[in-house]
Specification:
Blueprint: E1 5-12, H1 18-25, E2 31-41, H2 46-49, E3 52-59, E4 62-70, E5 76-84, H3 98-112, E6 118-134, E7 137-150, E8 153-166, H4 169-183, E9 186-187, H5 192-200, H6 222-246, H7 252-272, H8 282-314, H9 331-336, H10 338-350
Antiparallel strand pairs: 1-5, 1-8, 1-9, 2-3, 2-6, 3-4, 4-5, 6-7, 7-8
Length: 351
């Protein structure tokens, strides 16, 4: 039986790197497969709001029904698959799993209100998949090209996934880092299900990821509480970082702000848990400090270039000379740079 969790990393592929990545995939035995999927949810998004993705996908000549859900840790996700004779859904086939029982309960409650699940969006993907042995592990590398479709709206898919088939997770992280560096990939924790749900809701780009209330058991140990804090902070950091790289330029200022909030929260947590949990490597702590400082310069320019300057001018102050926006203060360039991407992946690996 296939394990009920998948361990994977996903990256956006810059358009300029597509050809090189295709050539890299072709250096070994590469399987090509057409994947057409429909994602199901209630009209009021009950599954998406519960962090559940439920889909039917045609994989070559077979249909597979898949249920996914978040679990603790940024690498692991719950996944339960069952083959279907056709494009027909049956939630009961996921019964007996924690996420499957939640799915059934949500759908039963919706049905009691006269609400049935429907197709919210679909994906059309051409996948090139290659299995590699590295560091004592078997890792599947999959290059996905295609599009998300929701009504009349569509969005391009160009991403590469690294999934651990067997072996130590450290090998997955090491291989992904080598490919990231070679092809200028950018880490993106956002799933196709999240992107499709957002597109179906009329948003082409992610909204700024704000801080959320921490949740852990009242009797949690210091280590368990620390893990919950790191999970929350890294989610805020990595999602805003990904949105800065490939999101809406009009939201850049707020993404920078929320990214800095996430870093500030994590740095505060490092001080609060000092002596209670294992020490974080100095390189990760110093990397956070440097990234925070870089984003701080961008934040200063944003503030000076907005309402603050206007207020000063209205008060009769002389026009200020704003610092130039260069590679050292451009947050998009800073987040796409090797140092920042290496730091984000190192934090994901460490936790």
């Amino acid at each position: 039986m296939k394990p009920l969790t998948e361990i994977e990393l996903k990256f956006r592929v810059p358009a300029a790197q597509r050809a090189a990545l295709v050539a890299e995939m072709a250096r070994g035995h590469c399987e090509s497969l057409s994947l057409a999927a429909i994602y199901l949810d209630t009209p009021d998004r009950r599954l998406a709001r519960a962090g559940i993705a439920w889909r039917l996908r045609r994989e070559g000549r077979r249909w597979v029904q898949t249920l996914k859900g978040a679990v603790a840790g940024s690498l692991a996700r719950f996944e339960h698959e069952v083959e279907r004779p056709a494009a027909s859904r049956d939630a009961s086939l996921h019964a007996g799993t924690e996420v499957g029982d939640r799915l059934i309960a949500i759908l039963d409650a919706a049905r009691a209100e006269g609400i049935e699940p429907e197709v919210r969006f679909r994906t059309e993907v051409r996948r090139s998949a290659r299995r590699l042995r590295s560091g004592g592990a078997v890792i599947e590398v999959a290059l996905d090209e295609g599009r998300l479709v929701a009504g009349d709206a569509s969005a391009r898919i160009l991403e590469v996934e690294f999934e651990l088939v067997s072996g130590p997770p450290a090998a997955l992280l090491a291989l992904a880092e080598r490919w990231r560096r070679r092809h200028a990939l950018t880490y993106d924790p956002c799933t196709k299900a999240e992107r499709g749900d957002r597109l179906a809701g009329g948003a082409a780009h992610p909204a700024p990821r704000r801080a959320k209330r921490l949740r852990y058991a009242a009797d949690a140990t210091a280590q368990q509480a620390w893990q919950a804090v790191v999970d929350e902070c890294l989610d805020q950091i990595t999602r805003n970082a990904a949105a800065l790289c490939d999101g809406d330029p009009a939201l850049r200022v707020e993404h920078v702000h929320q990214l800095r909030v996430g870093i500030r929260r994590l740095r505060s947590a490092l001080r609060c848990f000092d002596g209670w949990v294992d020490a974080v490597p100095d390189a990760l702590v110093e990397g956070l400090r440097e990234l925070f400082a870089t984003l701080g310069r961008a934040r200063d320019i944003d503030v000076l270039g907005s309402g603050v300057v206007a207020e000063l001018l209205r008060a009769g102050a002389p026009p200020p000379r704003l610092p130039p926006v260069d590679a050292g203060s451009d947050p998009v360039a800073a987040l796409r740079a090797d140092a920042a991407q290496r730091l984000l992946l190192a934090w994901v690996a460490w936790r």
